[in-house]
Amino acid sequence: MVGAGAWGTALALAAERAGRKITLWAREPEVVEGVAMRRRNPFLQNHLIPGAIKVTNDLAQALKGTQLVVLVVPSQYLRAMAREVEALLPADVPVVICAKGIEGDSGKLMTQVIADEMPGRPQAILSGPSFADEVAEGQPTAVTIASEDVGATHETAMASLAARVALSFSSPVFRPYLSDDPLGVEVGGAVKNVLAIACGIAAGRGFGSNPRAALITRGLAEIKRLAQALGGRRETVTGLAGIGDLTLTCSSEQSRNFSFGKALGAGMTPDEALAGKKSVAEGAVNAKSVTALAARLGVDMPICQAVYAVIYGGVEVDAAMKALLTRPIKAESRELEGLISLPNPANYDEPETEIPA
Ligand SMILES: NC(=O)C1=CN([C@@H]2O[C@H](COP(=O)(O)OP(=O)(O)OC[C@H]3O[C@@H](n4cnc5c(N)ncnc54)[C@H](O)[C@@H]3O)[C@@H](O)[C@H]2O)C=CC1
Ligand SMILES: O=C(CO)COP(=O)(O)O
């Protein structure tokens, strides 16, 4: 397990429950010390880590003899980490990507980053509605595991990397589903973080259930559009890694992205809301990469754009909301999307904020 933040640690516990032998690689000496001496990780403090899980900050030692590498560092660090791992790992050992994000500078998906840095290496992606704390606690959880080699037949699916990874984690409390659409799976994971910030903002602003339901539903339409533009399938977005993770993170204060948004909605600046946080709110970084990618592909993602405007454009929450709500009136269905655009009579004044139609 390369990365011993909250999620790497919870996945180590899940795999240990599934009977695997785990070595956890941690970047921070205090994490190694905490796990080795007290069986506690400061990133996931409430859970005892069984002695059978080894911990080290020596990457070569962690990778020695391993049959599967699970990469669980945040998306902005995945490229550098993959480069380090590649130099130490035999070519046939597969990797599983668990980061949820789109790379800042390049706009690349995590699978593309791995293809760049680990060319030819078999890769799968694990995503879905799964708070680390609840997985660590052994609460029932279902995730999606996707790899390109799942194929269309029983035989190819059974022999696929996704199936092998699923067996590595499967236990009576952790249920993986297989997918052959890694792209659709990862777009869901990356964009839901930005949308969770939007829902947090609405909650922090004092709004209730209606705005949240609207943001989740129209946010899902944004995920579908981006996934499809990149070659993923709309159908994948209705699965665990799409609507599943979106509903989870958009409706719980356990979500770091939702909580970050909530602080913004309550009036904090982005810097104030992130101050002193050791753990990641990936959506804060990804608001930039998601909107840049959408603009490059010509994909309409007004909610993500509004989140970007609040975090990076200094736009007030109320102005961003008004701009979103008073855009031209559109059709809801896919068939009519793009055909209808009525001037909105609710737009009494010139919009103060540029949000794409
Ligand atoms: N925590 C959760 O419930 C879940 C998290 N994820 C995803 O897993 C990924 C990892 O998140 P968490 O484990 O929650 O992170 P975390 O917020 O618990 O910990 C931060 C992690 O970042 C690492 N880090 C900090 N600076 C670094 C650097 N320069 N290079 C490499 N690593 C560095 C730390 O070592 C630590 O592992 C993220 O992409 C997140 O979206 C996915 C599902 C659930
Ligand atoms: O991805 C997650 C659960 O599936 C964790 O969400 P947060 O990063 O918002 O806490």
UniProtKB/TrEMBL annotation:
It holds the Pfam family NAD_Gly3P_dh_C. The keyword Nucleotide-binding applies. NAD(+) binds at G3, A4, G5, A6, W7, G8, A132, R256. GO terms for biological process: carbohydrate metabolic process; glycerol-3-phosphate biosynthetic process; glycerol-3-phosphate catabolic process; glycerophospholipid metabolic process; phospholipid biosynthetic process. The active site is at K192. Pathway: Membrane lipid metabolism; glycerophospholipid metabolism. Keywords: Cytoplasm, Lipid biosynthesis, Lipid metabolism, NAD, NADP, Nucleotide-binding, Oxidoreductase, Phospholipid biosynthesis, Phospholipid metabolism. NADPH binds at W7, R27, K100, A132, R256, V280, E282. One of its GO terms (cellular component) is cytosol. InterPro entries: 6-PGluconate_DH-like_C_sf (IPR008927), 6PGD_dom2 (IPR013328), G3P_DH_NAD-dep (IPR006168), G3P_DH_NAD-dep_C (IPR006109), G3P_DH_NAD-dep_N (IPR011128), NAD(P)-bd_dom_sf (IPR036291). Substrate binds at K100, R256, N257. Sn-glycerol 3-phosphate binds at K100, G128, S130, K192, D245, S255, R256, N257. It comes from the Bacteria. It catalyses: sn-glycerol 3-phosphate + NADP(+) = dihydroxyacetone phosphate + NADPH + H(+); sn-glycerol 3-phosphate + NAD(+) = dihydroxyacetone phosphate + NADH + H(+). This is Glycerol-3-phosphate dehydrogenase [NAD(P)+]. It comes from Oceanibaculum pacificum.
